[in-house]
Design a protein that fits this description.
about 290 residues; alpha/beta; Rossmann fold; six-stranded mixed sheet; 11 helices; 15 strands; about 40% helix; about 30% strand; globular
């Protein structure tokens, strides 16, 4: 048996991809008009129309069940959304302590596609037969390199959350500005806005290109919230330019969209240098199937 991998639904891993990579996903929670429900219980386009939606972490008990179900003599690695954004990491730590045994809990300091890329790197290392220590080391190496940059349709949700002043939201609507943000190392950083959707996509792809290290290979996820065409275009642009090793599209989860709003599109990525490479690689083909090759 190999090291087992568990994560939360904030990683926004496509269901078929999580299944094929043998990754267990513990759902985050939403409360819709006072009624709790697990993330994924209803379509995103229905949720964004609801007037009262709040979010919460999985319970320690849910993580404990997932860890026990995936119990392996080689150990379990639990990878969570950034602890700066959610109490999920703390819940997973409590669960691991309750279970005991070889269980490691790691704060990915990421979310969405960036978290997904960390999780996939862990799963690939486990598939190759890496030990618990080796999988954890791989995880930390990817965390130090992964980035996420995205544009949002408007600043309205961020204004309501208090992240930007109300006048900035008004200006964005009136002038057609496309806000850009980077989420890295557990922190959100506002980037210079673009003047159009096309300019925003160009800038995101340019950021990926400029961050390249010679001889490195690219792992990339296109993420979106009710903007599949923009995500597909981003992936096509970056794939044409860089020929990534890992490439897939994932829909941003409702827990994240509550805070960012719909019409989000972006890329998460990391560059794998020669000395960090393992024996296999992963790639999603044009038909949407994610393949792992040796």
């Amino acid at each position: 048996m190999s090291v087992a991998i568990v994560t939360d639904s904030a990683a926004a891993l496509p269901t078929d991809l999580a299944t094929r990579c043998n990754i267990t996903v513990v759902p985050m929670w939403l409360t819709v008009q006072g009624v709790p429900e697990p993330e994924g219980a209803r379509p995103l386009d229905e949720l964004v129309l609801q007037p009262e939606v709040t979010t919460s972490a999985p319970t320690p008990g849910e993580f404990e069940r997932a860890i026990k179900e995936r119990s392996s003599p080689q150990g379990v690695v639990v990878l969570t959304i950034a602890s700066s954004m959610s109490a999920t990491y703390q819940a997973a730590v409590v669960a691991a302590e309750a279970v005991g045994g070889p269980v490691r809990v790691v704060d990915t300091r990421a979310a969405g596609g960036a978290e997904a890329l960390v999780v996939l790197a862990a799963a690939e290392a486990a598939r190759r037969g890496a030990s618990l220590d080796e999988v954890e080391a791989r995880v930390h190496a990817v965390i130090s390199r992964v980035r996420l940059v995205a544009s949002v349709g408007t600043l309205d949700h961020l204004v309501r959350s208090g992240r930007v002043p109300g006048v900035a939201g008004w200006a964005g609507r009136r002038l057609g500005i496309k806000p850009l943000f980077e989420f890295r190392a557990g922190e959100v950083r506002r980037l210079r806005p673009a003047l159009s959707t096309d300019a925003a996509l160009d800038r995101i792809v340019a950021l990926v290109h400029r961050s390249q290290t010679e001889g490195a290979r690219l792992h990339v996820a296109a993420l979106h919230a009710l903007a599949p065409d923009a995500a597909a275009e981003l992936l096509q642009r970056v794939s044409t330019l860089e020929h990534p090793t890992t490439a897939f599209v994932g829909e941003f989860g409702p827990v994240m969209v509550v805070h960012t709003g719909p019409d989000l599109a972006g890329l998460a990525w990391w560059w794998e240098e020669e000395e960090a490479r393992g024996a296999g690689d992963a790639r999603q083909g044009a038909n949407g199937a994610f393949e792992i090759r040796s």
